[in-house]
Amino acid sequence: MQREFRILEVRRGSVLVQPLDAVKEECLRVARATTYIENEVIIAEPLSDRSGVSSQWEVIAARVDPSFIDGGAPKVVPCGNEEAGTECRFAEYVSSEEEEDFEDALEALRSGDHVTAARLLRAFIRRFPYHIDSYHHLGIIETDRGRRGRALKYFEMGYRIGLRSVSEGFSGTLPWIHLENRPFLRAAHGYGLALELQRRHLDAVDVYERILAWNPNDNQGVRYLLPSLYLQARAPQKARATLERHGADGMNLYTRCLLEIQDGRRREALRWLCRALSYNLYLPRMVLAGKKVSHHEATCTVVVGSEHEAGQYLRENGGWLRKPPRDFLQRLMAMKPFVRRLDRATTLKVALDSVASLPPGETRSATVDELYAIFDEDHIPAILEECRDAW
Description:
alpha+beta, Serine Threonine Protein Phosphatase 5, Tetratricopeptide repeat, CATH 2.40.50.140, 3 domains, elongated
């Protein structure tokens, strides 16, 4: 007979659970026990051996559902002054004395002792099952260990606990400036990134759009992630609307260029390409070479304006490797004035990146000015004229 349980503790080969229809705790032997997390809800049924005695349980289904956790979720309260308007914050859930145990776990994490940090955090969750920040940090630990499925569950648990605190009709904001809001916003961001890794693009978009509604200042930069996600979900018009609503900058300048190419607006695409080249020079030749970065490289920290940044963007935006954008770039690269501009800009960029070849001071400053002038707004009309025969 199938029964539902809430997991209290995960052990090797078994889970300590509380039946949803009873009070007494039980220990269930289950396969792959360490794939589950604390407070996850499972549906399981006993497996009988030849003697008819149940010694093992089979998990039929599992879900992240904090509604069965004992007690109440943290409350969200108004910030309490007229200047704050609709601003809200999470009320204190754990006392400062009790929080010291959580800080011990963070200290172990900072020192690189993931095993101790995870053990302390799981023990803390047993005492305070609604502690969003503990789930967030366990998600980080599992991500670092390469256990993406388990990491997603921890991030999702923190996120869904926060959703229980924010009622259906909630119309306020949860600004980053209030420290109490950051654990929830971080857990939501971690959940969105974990969804991206599983290629659940529209689910990630939903999380990011909610983060923007709660924290319009977007201290976490989620608006930069939305256009590419919409493109991967084959929703180009939503990608365009997002860029127009939040503005295009950084590598999203290339995303806007790609949208113009897909819509057949090549002169407008060239305008956006020039703006994108003022930010990062490397993508066009990487596209024509079919060059991408490996998944491992894509998870590393990248330098703004670098070839690595262009490679990571290209890995996440396969639309650039399709025929229309490649044809667009090939036609441009047949225009000698355009190629001369790109070659000059690349030479200056290499010089700037090499401390040995370019001294600091006025020489460096002049080189920066020359580099950013090559594709700036003042030169776009001339570039359009130079490339008028490209199509």
